[in-house]
Specification:
By secondary structure, the chain is an alpha/beta fold. The protein has one domain: Vaccinia Virus protein VP39 (Rossmann fold), CATH 3.40.50. It is built from 10 helices and 7 strands. It has helices at 2-14, 16-22, 24-38, 56-64, 77-86, 122-132, 150-156, 171-180, 200-208, 225-234; strands at residues 46-50, 69-74, 91-94, 107-113, 133-144, 184-197, 244-256. It has a 7-stranded mixed beta sheet with strand order 3-2-1-4-5-7-6, with helices on both faces. Helix 3 (24-38) runs parallel beside helix 4 (56-64) and helix 7 packs across helix 10 (225-234). The chain is globular and about 55 Å long.
C-alpha cells in the first residue's frame, strides 16, 4: 500500500495548481458539510480537517468558527501550500491520515471530506480520531460510496473485465466502524450528486485535474486511441440534453465522542441540484 500511497501523494502534488478550478463537486460537498455544522449547537475551539486539500473546507470552517484554531492535514505538500497561501492563520500539518501526529483529547471537532476512500486503514483512522477528540467532541465526514463514477465504470466494462475504477466502501461499513471504535449516536445518510459534461474528454479531465485518476493497487494503464473512442461511444448520455453525467454517491457520517442530547443532533439535509 505504501507504493500506491506515494502515487496518490504524487498525483495530488502535481495537480495542486489546477485543483480549485476543477473541484466543483468537492466544493459543493464541503458547503453541504458546513450547512450541517451550522445547524448543530457546537462552538469548537480546536478543529482538525483531515485531507484538507487546497483549504476550501478549512477556510469555510474558519469563517464559520472565527474563534477556533484550525489544523489542516494533508499528504500533499503542494496542496497544503495552496491552503496556506489562502489563509496563513491555518495550522498546516504534512502527514497521511493513517499516521496522524496528535495528542489525545486535543480537538473539539474533526472533519474530513473526500479523503477516506483513499485510505486503506479506515479502522485505525476512526480509532485515532476518537482518541484525538475531547469529551463530547464531534466527528463529521463525507466520502464516496459504491455507485460513484458508475457511468465510467459501465463504459470501461465494454473494453475488458479489468478494474479501471477504484472500489468504494458501503455506507454501513463506515457506520459499523464508528460504533466499533466507541462513537455514539452515529447518523449516516447518502445523497447522489450528478455533474454533467459536454464531452468524454471533459469527464476524464475533471478527474485528472483534481488528482483523482489514481487506481489503488494497480499500475497506470495505457489506453489506445481505438479503446478511447470505444469508451466515448459507450459512455451514457442524458437523453434530454445529450450531456455526459458523472454520478457521485456521497456518504455523510456524523458521530459524537460520548452522548449528547437528541435535540442537538440534526437530521438529513438534502443535497441541492448543481
Amino acid at each position: 500500500m505504501e507504493k500506491f500511497k506515494n502515487k496518490i501523494k504524487y498525483s495530488f502534488n502535481s495537480k495542486a495548481s489546477s485543483y480549485d478550478k476543477y473541484s466543483l463537486v468537492q466544493r459543493e460537498v464541503a458547503n453541504r458539510l458546513c450547512e450541517r455544522l451550522s445547524s448543530i449547537k457546537i462552538k469548537p475551539l480546536n478543529i482538525l480537517d483531515i485531507g484538507c486539500g487546497t483549504g476550501y473546507l478549512s477556510n469555510s470552517l474558519y469563517n464559520l468558527f472565527p474563534d477556533a484554531s484550525i489544523t489542516c492535514l494533508d499528504i500533499s505538500f503542494n496542496m497544503l501550500n495552496e491552503a496556506y497561501k489562502k489563509n496563513p492563520k491555518l495550522n498546516c500539518v504534512l502527514s497521511d491520515a493513517e499516521n496522524m501526529p496528535f495528542k489525545n483529547n486535543k480537538f473539539d471537532l474533526v472533519v474530513s471530506s473526500f479523503t477516506l476512500h483513499w485510505c486503506d486503514e479506515v479502522e485505525k483512522i476512526f480509532s485515532d480520531i476518537h482518541r484525538f477528540l475531547k469529551d463530547k467532541g464531534l466527528f463529521l465526514f463525507t466520502t464516496v460510496g459504491p455507485s460513484t463514477l458508475q457511468e465510467l465504470r459501465d463504459a470501461y466494462s465494454s473494453l475488458d473485465d479489468e478494474q479501471h475504477i477504484n472500489t468504494f466502501s458501503d455506507m454501513h461499513l463506515y457506520g459499523d466502524s464508528l460504533l466499533k471504535h466507541g462513537f455514539h449516536d452515529p447518523v449516516m445518510d447518502i445523497e447522489n450528486i450528478v455533474i454533467e459534461y459536454n464531452s468524454f474528454k471533459d469527464v476524464l479531465s475533471s478527474l485528472k485535474k483534481t488528482g483523482a485518476n489514481t487506481v489503488i493497487g494497480q499500475e497506470p494503464k495505457f489506453i489506445s486511441k481505438s479503446s478511447y473512442n470505444k469508451l466515448a461511444k459507450n459512455y451514457p448520455l442524458n437523453d434530454t440534453n445529450k450531456r455526459l453525467p458523472v454520478t457521485y454517491e456521497m456518504i455523510y457520517g456524523l458521530a459524537w465522542k460520548n452522548n449528547l442530547k437528541s435535540n442537538e443532533i440534526i437530521g438529513v439535509i438534502p443535497i441541492k441540484n448543481i
